[in-house]
């Protein structure tokens, strides 16, 4: 069993790895047409029977059979099956829990039936118990309903009497199976989830004296891992797309956990082909700004100047497009401005935050121009920053805006934290921009406070049953709410179905969204203490901030190998550090 798969699943599973080699009988005809699946598959048995229909075992018998590992092989030999039986008036159904969020589908291995014909069943995938039991409404987005417009999660189909069948391709943890026809019996030998994922090692790691923080780091890492599909997606159930703004926290986490994975360059290449200039990335100018920031971060982490040069013309053209929208008075004509959904009602705050994002992006773009020998583009960046900085706007109480202003150095980080970000603790945080609020806390030197916010906010999702982090979250949702892995209770809120807003009300809300993975990058950088000083990690500064932790240890991937770091706090409050680094890296301490 490969170590990285063990870390990923923490359960026993078998692996089937894709191959690019076609059998010789295909000859040359399919060269350039056939494509290998870059992903691997693991079959996972249910970890728990959540519910079966009926008051006794007459409708569903022997459900415990499905909890066995299985081998995927149907058989005519006598064996024990889980049977689902319906009558004229009663249907059979079962709800299965696979223990953690997965991306993929379901494999049913059949036994026998009381009819030679295929049997009609309904399969519902859910990221929560509530979603797996919910109705589907695709004509509108409404709380209490699920949708399957991005990935089909509610499926009616015929299953064979014998043999096996595979169903679905979505994000889920729970599966409900309903037998729809009267007077039918079907036998299930296995009902295994199919996990589809990139089989890559977790080169980065984080462990500390606080197991809650360790769980948050690993959950953040696993969240971004699941979204590393054919390309780097935003979500595995909904928004299975390349969104440039949402990619930035993912790219930061990937760099700290997996290192230089090709999915990032491939996704940036694809984005440029989908949105040629003068189009904005994803139709939003803010996401073209994130494109520049991502390039700078990727270059600093991995030093891939060849990839950067590949995007030279696009970068130069984008800089010209951006700066043409800013006049001498500091006014701009970018049209619709977007930070994240929770900030949207505060348009004055969004305006202030957007202008800070402009400064941040142009500053990073200037760094890229110096690498790419683009002196005129570098001057455009400097001029654009000068113009936009003539009008620094008030964040209007918006934490997202204050965080960006601190990062862009348009506001003192201490002021941003004391007057905006720290007010009310985690109230007003979001899973996307919470990462930048933590970054502002670090700039202000408020590391202990940032650790507490991570424990409360991202830990609050864990407390509600999360095994991946969500598209959005508010701590107020947890009051009198049922966990996502529990059956709904009358008089209590459903943490999944009763909340969410904008494009993600109710069960449409994604419970595995890559933009929420920021704590993995933040903990690796600011607690483990790895700061990249020169591109490609040629020079790295180790500056840990343990806060109330007694010790922390971990690894950090670089182009030259893995940094191994241990920090332990002494009784006098100072920190002892043990470090092993590749010889090509200069370490500053």
* SS-derived structural category: alpha+beta
Which assembly state applies to the chains in this document?
Answer: single chain
Mean pLDDT across residues: 94
What is the helix tally? 15
Strand content: 15-25%
Instruction: Specify the biggest β-sheet.
Output: 10 strands, antiparallel
Terminal Cα separation, in Å? 38 Å
Report helical residue fraction: 25-40%
Number of strands: 19
User: What are the low-pLDDT stretches, counting only 5+ consecutive residues below 50?
Assistant: 9-19
Question: What's the overall geometry?
Answer: globular
Radius of gyration: 26 Å
Structure write-up:
The protein has 589 residues and is an alpha+beta fold. It is built from 15 helices and 19 strands. Strand 14 and strand 15 form a beta hairpin. Helix 4 crosses helix 15 (518-527). The protein is globular and about 80 Å long. The two termini are 38 Å apart. The model is unreliable at 9-19 (pLDDT under 50).
